[in-house]
Design brief:
The complex is a heterodimer.
Chain A: H1 2-11, H2 13-22, H3 25-58, H4 88-121, H5 126-139, H6 144-156, E1 166-168, E2 172-175, E3 178-181, E4 183-186, H7 190-218, H8 224-242, E5 247-250, E6 253-254, E7 259-260, E8 263-265, H9 267-293, H10 297-305, H11 310-340, H12 344-347, H13 352-364, H14 367-396
Antiparallel strand pairs in A: 1-2, 2-3, 3-8, 4-5, 6-7
Chain B: H1 24-31, H2 36-62, H3 83-95, H4 103-121, H5 128-148, H6 165-190, H7 195-210, H8 213-227, H9 236-261, H10 265-273, H11 278-293, H12 295-308, H13 320-330, H14 339-374
Helix pairs in contact in B: 3-13, 4-5, 6-7, 6-9, 7-9, 8-9, 9-11, 9-12, 10-11, 12-14, 13-14
The chains are: A alpha+beta, B mainly alpha.
C-alpha cells in the first residue's frame, strides 16, 4: 500500500502528491504522532508556566532543598532514630519504613488467612465450604476504608483504659493505647541461636538437593520436608539451651496508670494490619480457589492412574501446577495491599502518605515535590515487583513441545 | 485352567438400590460427617455459627434501641445497635446537607438514572444504542442542571452541601462514564502500531496503576490548582472527579485491552478487505465485539471504583462513609458508645448491597455471554 502511494506521488505532481499523502497510512501515522507530541508539549508548557507563576505569586521556592530543613514534628511510631529536630528527609525514611512494616505484616497475615479460606471453600464439608464462601462474599464487597474505621473507631477506641486492660495469654495486655506484648531482649550468646538457624537452613537445602538426586537416580523418596522442619526447629532450640537461654523477655507489668515495659503496638497499626489483611484475604482466597480448580481434572486422574495416593497427588501434581496460576494474581494482591496501606492517613497511622502528603505538605506547601516523591516511591515498588513477576513468569511458564 | 479371581460371582453381595430423590440423612453423612476430621470440623463450625449468630442477633435486635430522640437513649451500658441514630440521620446519610425542599430534584435525578441503567443492563430491553446515548450524553446534562440548579429558575445548590449516598453514586457514575472514552482511547493507543502513541499510552496507564488512588486524589486536590492559570478555580468535587476519572480510565483501559486482544486477526483483516478506514474498522467491527466480551470486567472494575469512592473523604468530601464518619465522631447529640459501630454497620450494609448486587450481575452476564459462545 505504501509503495503504491509513493508511485502515485512521483507521477502526480505537487497537488496530487499532497492529496495522496493525506490518504497514505504511514504519512497519516507520522502526522498523528507529531500532533500528539505537539499537544502533550503544549499542555506541559502551559502547566509549567502556570505552576511557575502561581508558585512565584504564593512565594514558594520550588526544589528539593526543603528536605534538609528541620521537620519540627513528632512521629508516633519510628523504626529508626527520629526526633522533631530531624530533617524532612529523615521523616521520609520513617514514613517509608512504616509503610513497608504494615505491608509486610499485612502480606503475611493475609496470605495465611487467604490460603486457609480458599482451601476451606473447596472443602468436601458443606458447612465449612459455605462459611468460607460467606467470608469471601461479605468482606470483598465492603470498602477497606470502612473496615479500618470500624476496627479503629468502633473496636480499638472502645477498649478500656490502661488501668482496666484486657489481660491476654502470654502476659499481653490490650487497651485503648494498643496491644502490649512481651519484648524479646537479646543477651550475649543469642548469636549462636541465629547461627544454628542459618546452619539448619543450609543443611536442609543440602538434604533437599541430595534427596532429589537420589530420587532421580534410584526412584527412592526421602522425607525431605519432615527432616528439614525437624532441623530448623531443633538445631536452634539446642543452641538456645546450650548457650544458657540467652533470650529474655521484658514482660509488661500492669501499673497504676499504664502498662509498663514490653513492646506496644499502636492501635493504628493493629487496625490497619487487621483491616487490610482481612480485606485482601478475601481476594487471595478466590485466587487460591480458582488456582486449584484451574488444574485440569485429567491431571488428578493421571496421577491416580500412576498409583499416587491423594496426598501425593495434591503435593506433587496439583499444588505445583496451581501455584503457576496463583502466583501472578497473588503478587497483584500484594501490590494492592501495599498501595491500600496508604489508607493509613485516614486513621492517623504514620505511613509515607500520612507523614509526607499529610504533615510535611501542610508545613512546607511544597505540593508538587511532595506528591512527586510519594508517587515515585509507589511507582518504584510497583515497577520492581512487576519486573520480578515477569522474570518469574518466564521461568515458570509451561515449556511446550 | 484357573478362573481369574475377579469374576467370582459368589463374592458380590446384594446391595440396596441407590436412593432416588432427596435423602436427608445420606446428605448429612456425605457432606458433613464423611470422616472423623470432617465431623469435628462440622461440630466446630456449628458452634462458631451459633456463637456468632447469637451475638449478632443479640446486638442487632435483642439489645438494640429502635426509637429515641438523641444519644441518651443508647447511652446505657450494654446497649446493642443504636438504630434510632440511623433512623434520625437517614435523610442526611442519603442527601448530605442538600436543602430539604430541593431533595425532590435528587430523587428525580436518581429515577432518571435508574431508567437509563435498567435499559442498559437488562438484556431483554431493545434499543441498547438509544439507552447508551441517553445514559452517556443526555442524562449527565439533565443531572448536572437538576443537581446544581444552574438556570431554569431553580434554587442553586453549591456542591459543598452535597453529601451522603448521593455523592457516592455521583462519583462512581461520573467516574465510570467520564473514564470510558479515556479508557477506549488508551486501550486503542496501547495496541497502536505508532510507537509514540503506544509509549504515551503505556506510560500513562502504568504510571496511574502504580500509585494508590489517594495520591491521585491528593494530586487533583493540591497540585491541579497550581497547574491552572491564575483566577481559574475548580470546584473541590470536580477536582476529585477528574482524579477519579483519570485513575479509573487507566484500569478500564486494561480491561478493554483484554477484550481487544481476544478479537481474532481475521476481523481486522476482513475490515481492511472491505475497505473500511481505521476509525471505521475500530468503531464498527472491533470495538463492539471487544466491549461485549468485557462487560463482566467492566462491571467488576465498577465495583472496585464504587468501593474506592469512599476515599474522597480523605480530601474533605462527604460521601456516604464520610457523612457517617462525621455523624458518629462529631455529633455531640448522638454521642454514645454504640453509635460508631451502628453507623459503620449501616454504611457497610449499603455498600455491600450495591457491590454484591453488581457482582452477581457480572456473574450472570458472564454465564449468559459464555452460553452464547458455546452455541
Amino acid at each position: 500500500m505504501v509503495g503504491d502511494g509513493e508511485r502515485r506521488i512521483s507521477r502526480g505532481g505537487f497537488s496530487g502528491g499532497i492529496r495522496n499523502l493525506a490518504y497514505d497510512p504511514a504519512a497519516r501515522g507520522i502526522a498523528l504522532q507529531i500532533l500528539l507530541v505537539l499537544a502533550i508539549a503544549a499542555i506541559g508548557l502551559e502547566i509549567v508556566s502556570n505552576a511557575v507563576s502561581n508558585l512565584a505569586r504564593q512565594g514558594i521556592t520550588s526544589g528539593f532543598g526543603f528536605l534538609n530543613h528541620t521537620s519540627g514534628f513528632d512521629i508516633s511510631q519510628k523504626l529508626i532514630a527520629y526526633a522533631n529536630t530531624s530533617t524532612y528527609a529523615r521523616a521520609f525514611w520513617v514514613g517509608l519504613l512504616n509503610t513497608l512494616l504494615v505491608a509486610a505484616l499485612g502480606i503475611m497475615l493475609s496470605t495465611v488467612i487467604g490460603f486457609a479460606v480458599g482451601i476451606a471453600r473447596l472443602s468436601s464439608n458443606w458447612l465449612i465450604a459455605r462459611l468460607a464462601g460467606l467470608y469471601v462474599e461479605v468482606l470483598r464487597n465492603i470498602p477497606p476504608l470502612l473496615m479500618l474505621f470500624a476496627f479503629y473507631f468502633a473496636v480499638l477506641k472502645a477498649l478500656p483504659a490502661p488501668r482496666e486492660s484486657i489481660v491476654l495469654p502470654l502476659s499481653s495486655y490490650l487497651n485503648v493505647r494498643g496491644l502490649t506484648v512481651p519484648k524479646p531482649m537479646l543477651e550475649a550468646g543469642a548469636g549462636y541461636v541465629g547461627i544454628a538457624f542459618v546452619l539448619a537452613l543450609v543443611l536442609a537445602a543440602i538434604i533437599a538437593g541430595w534427596a532429589r538426586r537420589l530420587q532421580l537416580a534410584t526412584g527412592k523418596t526421602f522425607p525431605t520436608l519432615w527432616t528439614g522442619m525437624a532441623l530448623i526447629v531443633f538445631l536452634p532450640a539446642i543452641a538456645f539451651f546450650a548457650a544458657g537461654q540467652p533470650v529474655q523477655f521484658d514482660t509488661p507489668q500492669l501499673g497504676r496508670f499504664n502498662v509498663m515495659g514490653g513492646l506496644t503496638l499502636l492501635p493504628e497499626l493493629v487496625a490497619l494490619t487487621l483491616g487490610l489483611s482481612l480485606y485482601t484475604a478475601a481476594f487471595i482466597a478466590e485466587i487460591v480457589r480458582s488456582g486449584i480448580v484451574g488444574v485440569p481434572k485429567g491431571q488428578k486422574e493421571a496421577s491416580a492412574a500412576l498409583g499416587l495416593n491423594e496426598r501425593q497427588t495434591m503435593r506433587l501434581v496439583v499444588i505445583p501446577q496451581a501455584m503457576r496460576i496463583i502466583i501472578p494474581p497473588l503478587t497483584n494482591q500484594y501490590l494492592n495491599l501495599t498501595k491500600n496501606s496508604s489508607l493509613a492517613v485516614a486513621i492517623g497511622y504514620p505511613d509515607l502518605v500520612s507523614v509526607f502528603a499529610g504533615t510535611v505538605l501542610n508545613q512546607t506547601n511544597q505540593a508538587i515535590e511532595v506528591i512527586v516523591i510519594v508517587m515515585a516511591v509507589y511507582l518504584f515498588i510497583s515497577v520492581v515487583t512487576s519486573l520480578l513477576m515477569n522474570w518469574f513468569n518466564a521461568r515458570m511458564a509451561l515449556v511446550e513441545r | 485352567m484357573k478362573e481369574p479371581a475377579n469374576i467370582e460371582p459368589a463374592r458380590s453381595t446384594a446391595r440396596r438400590p441407590p436412593v432416588r430423590g432427596f435423602d436427608p440423612l445420606g446428605w448429612v453423612r456425605r457432606n458433613l460427617f464423611s470422616s472423623p476430621l470432617n465431623g469435628l470440623l462440622t461440630l466446630a463450625g456449628i458452634y462458631a455459627v451459633w456463637l456468632a449468630g447469637s451475638a449478632v442477633i443479640d446486638w442487632a435486635i435483642v439489645r438494640a434501641v429502635f426509637a429515641g430522640k438523641d444519644g441518651s437513649a443508647c447511652a446505657a451500658p450494654g446497649t446493642g445497635a443504636c438504630w434510632a441514630f440511623v433512623a434520625a440521620k437517614f435523610d442526611q446519610f442519603i442527601y448530605g446537607r442538600y436543602p430539604e425542599p430541593e431533595r425532590l430534584r435528587v430523587d428525580l435525578t436518581m429515577l432518571l438514572g435508574v431508567i437509563g441503567l435498567a435499559g442498559l443492563m437488562i438484556p431483554a430491553v431493545p434499543r441498547k444504542g438509544w439507552f447508551a446515548a441517553y445514559f452517556l450524553f443526555v442524562f449527565p446534562v439533565i443531572a448536572f442542571y437538576l443537581l446544581t440548579g444552574a438556570g431554569f429558575g431553580m434554587v442553586p445548590v453549591e456542591t459543598e452541601r452535597w453529601g451522603g449516598l448521593m455523592v457516592t453514586l455521583i462519583v462512581a457514575i461520573v467516574g465510570i462514564v467520564a473514564s470510558f472514552p479515556v479508557a477506549v482511547l488508551l486501550a486503542i493507543g496501547r495496541r497502536s502500531r505508532l510507537p509514540f502513541v503506544r509509549w504515551a499510552s503505556i506510560g500513562f496507564i502504568e504510571m496511574v496503576r502504580g500509585v494508590p488512588l489517594i495520591t491521585m486524589l491528593f494530586m487533583a486536590s493540591v497540585m491541579l490548582p497550581l497547574f491552572l492559570p491564575d483566577g481559574v478555580t475548580f470546584d473541590k468535587l470536580l477536582r476529585a472527579l477528574i482524579g477519579v476519572a483519570l485513575f479509573q480510565g487507566a484500569y478500564l483501559a486494561e480491561v478493554i485491552r483484554g477484550g481487544l486482544q481476544a478479537i481474532p486477526r481475521g476481523q481486522y483483516e476482513a475490515a481492511d478487505a472491505l475497505g473500511l478506514s481505521y476509525p471505521q474498522k475500530i468503531g464498527l467491527i472491533v470495538m463492539p465485539q471487544a466491549l461485549k466480551l468485557v462487560i463482566p470486567g467492566i462491571v467488576n472494575s465498577f465495583i472496585a471504583l464504587f468501593k474506592d469512592t469512599s476515599l474522597v473523604l480523605i480530601i474533605g468530601l462527604f460521601d456516604l462513609l464520610g457523612i457517617v464518619q462525621q455523624a458518629v465522631s462529631s455529633d455531640a447529640a448522638w454521642f454514645s458508645p454504640s453509635t460508631p459501630l451502628t453507623g459503620y454497620v449501616f454504611a457497610g450494609f449499603v455498600f455491600w448491597v450495591f457491590c454484591f448486587g453488581m457482582s452477581r450481575y457480572a456473574q450472570w452476564m458472564e454465564r449468559r455471554l459464555s452460553g452464547g459462545e458455546r452455541r
